[in-house]
Design brief:
Chain lengths: ~350, ~350
């Protein structure tokens, strides 16, 4: 490819954001080329999408991950998965995405293209189309390379009412796979610790996992444990219900290399972000059925029942391998900024 | 108000973005408090909104204006108007908004509150509700204070098909009010020129203006002339149709103080952003009716017929007060970065 953007032909310039010729060319050649679909028209202010019936679900997310590319994904695929996953855990099939890009002056256009291409591939794999977008260019030093914001529109499919209000004492907490992979993979990609591993982010769509259980009786609530990880979801449940959550440490799936890095650096994997997992709360009698449904999927083989809702006052505790029990405090200091 | 965010209680800290307690408190106390509505639930991943019938329109926009507050508005009200206006010119009544905030570490929380409050007031005035949101905190120096991204969902109301493809030779170009006000107001607010005026941004919802003409016969196309201004909309029309656009300089409404500042500093007001105007293309026979409809509204009193579509090859020209005609080139260098 040999596109001339004028002024600077390999890196983003402020003029790529001014509404004029360079912006038009950047949008046409980088964004529209990869994201093209019948509903995306770069000449219109708004996209008109078909909508027959059913409840409309909306979700939105911002992405500031550093570095922009990491083992297992990049900010583009992450943006798709993050927004799709918020809709999936709410019981919706994602249909449409809108995309905002805040691009820093000086970003290499080849890198931007790789990211947009990855975003387009992730969207296609999930079956969503990007129907509207906007780009802004900010001055060198002010934008961390690239920030993305995506909004997803989905159609409600789960028949059950899912929500924190459905949770009851005695319910079980399930997690669909190992925790902490995304957080550790991004941290290692920063190279600031001189550590290297074969670790990759778990960034992926959780839609198949959500669909596998959302029709089952007894499924009360689902959430994707991103910022703050599994422990933070447990705290959200405790705060919303006023009950206690007890997590069972030996049952929580954590990959050995993640555990090793956490031990060396002093991170608690329960607080690290996942980007392709679900935490579900399921009635005790149906928890096994939900677990079996997850384990039948390639991405759910490590799924486990990891905790339960107790009739105690609002708190989150962890039972250790040795049988001890300690409180897990709510996250305050940020262990890993810019993780998603 | 005396909220303790911990760590730093007057300015944003990185921990306000980590998914933990400080983030929850910031969202509850600053965002949810001002934006509260029955559809906004900060405990859910996705908002479920009612949708009965009609075509769904989606639009999205990013905002990076500097300074964050300026005469006539701030980045919060601007974000609402920008997204609402994209829907309005597409013939839709806006219903729902999603909001992304990229907040820079160190931003004064009082300033963030003023902006969110202004955003909430603008949304209420227009009749849209913010149903989903997300916040990210980026390191000091990396975020320009605050970037916002909003996505709007609207229901198509205009019965006519509006679009660049509807434009015909002989059609007239109308503008709903004076041009350049937003661009000049923001530039003066930067104080870098030592100039001061009573200028204010025109930032406002154009929904009443759009509704006043979208049912009229002969209305082909509407656009809000933001980045790149009136001249850039003329170029978009020329490129899409392959025809020439001739603008009539004496007819273009420009306020005297805007003209004065432009003359002193060498800006062309035709390329400066408006944030509360519409450019419409209307069949010649119905142009007067559309003009009358606009002039009957408080925000349309300065509306004018400012140009026409010619059967010449693709170009934009300007007829001056002295009767001369010169070409208006497409914008390349950015006259005023970070204007919206």
């Amino acid at each position: 490819m040999n596109i001339k953007y004028g002024m600077q032909d390999t890196h983003i310039a402020l003029a790529h954001g001014n509404g004029g010729r360079f912006m038009r060319e950047l949008i046409e050649e980088v964004f529209a080329r990869h994201l093209c679909n019948p509903l995306l028209n770069v000449q219109t202010d708004a996209a008109c999408v078909p909508w027959t019936a059913g409840e409309l679900l909306l979700s939105t997310d911002g992405f500031t991950v550093q570095p922009l590319e990491f083992p297992g994904g990049n900010i583009g695929s992450l943006a798709v998965h993050g927004t799709v996953n918020d809709l999936a855990v709410a019981g919706a099939v994602p249909r449409y995405l809108t995309l905002n890009a805040f691009i820093e002056e000086g970003l290499e256009i080849k890198q931007l293209e790789r990211i947009v291409q990855s975003l387009a591939e992730a969207a296609q794999a999930v079956g969503v189309v990007v129907v509207a977008g906007d780009t802004k260019v900010v001055r060198r030093g002010e934008g961390g390379g690239l920030y993305l914001a995506t909004t997803g529109v989905g159609v409600k499919c789960a028949q059950a009412t899912l929500g924190l209000a459905q949770i009851q004492v005695g319910d079980k907490l399930l997690v669909s796979g190992s925790v902490g992979d995304h957080g550790i993979a991004v941290m290692l990609a920063r190279e600031q610790f001189g550590l290297r591993g074969d670790l990759a982010s778990d960034s992926a769509s959780v839609l198949p996992l959500a669909q596998a259980i959302w029709h089952l009786p007894g499924v009360r609530f689902m959430r994707d444990p991103t910022r703050g990880g599994l422990a933070t979801v447990a705290h959200e449940i405790a705060q919303a219900t006023g009950w206690g959550i007890r997590l069972n440490q030996p049952a929580i799936p954590i990959r050995d290399p993640v555990l090793s890095v956490c031990e060396i650096l002093g991170y608690d994997p329960l607080f690290l972000a996942c980007e392709g997992r679900i935490v579900a709360v399921v009635a005790a009698a149906q928890a096994k059925a939900a677990l079996v449904a997850w384990q039948a999927l390639p991405q759910g083989q490590a799924a486990a029942i990891v905790g339960e809702v107790l009739n105690t006052h609002e708190q989150v505790s962890l039972v250790t391998a040795l049988g001890g029990e300690r409180l897990l405090e709510e996250l305050e200091e940020d262990p890993l900024p810019r993780i998603c």
